[in-house]
Amino acid sequence: MWLTVSSLLVGLSVFFLLPARYSAEVVFILKNPLYSDRNYLFNNETKFIDYFASDDDVDRLMTMCRSDSVQDKVISTFDLAEKYDYDITEPKQVVKLHKFFNKNLNIYRTDGKNVVLSYTDKDMKRALAIAKMSLKESEQALRKFYVNMRNDMYQSVMNKVKEEDSMVRLLTDSLSVLRTKYGIYDIISPSRYNIMLSSFKENGREDYGRGIEEIQNLESVKDEIVTDKARHITLANQYATGNSFNEMPLTDIVNVSRLPLKPKGLGIVGVIAICIFSGVFFSILYILSMDFYRSIGSNR
User: What per-residue confidence (pLDDT) applies to 131?
Assistant: First the structure.
């Protein structure tokens, strides 16, 4: 009886003395990032992929959520170093702060393809605000990765377009000089498949034939470069689509915890039940142990 009562008193003392902790959750759907890619955004072949993100994409979001860049911003915004009593001027204290933050942060995927991000804190309002901001910053970090990739591709293609534009201007100047030199102003290009030319009239110059060959060669090269330039400009426009951070968000929030939150862990009824069970269990164990040792002593 005394062991059970003592266990109950200790459990109730701990329950009332320790501050309550609250866990806030944000339930959301992670969309498939491939839909913002040009191969699917400009899809003319009726390809279909799952609208929901794959497990690998969720893992990438989790990586972003636990990255130093995201967590440092959240910690700095809510001044958690001061709130949790950590000295950020000490490197070891910074490591402990991040460990404490990660301990209270949890993100996982459910069987219904939803993702749950939760944060636990003594302040229920702060727990909810941190959960929301962690999701926002994680999404932006993941989206920044894809946007930067497309921007790099866009820049590479545009550099090629500039080279082609320079070559077109150079070939145009060369063709202008040759046409004036040989007096040939007809369109001569085997690459222009939509134009059918059967013959050309001589202009009486001895180098007329050579002029045709030179002009034809330059026009062929110029036409191919102009075609490549047009195709590359189209490609660059595709890579530049959807690169704004307010376009095609990757997450869609399904549910958010509402205030006031219930304290995390067992309630007072659960604490009483566990304390009584523990007291009775260890009391019985103590009685059986004492009886066992008494029986051994009596046999001797």
Answer: 96
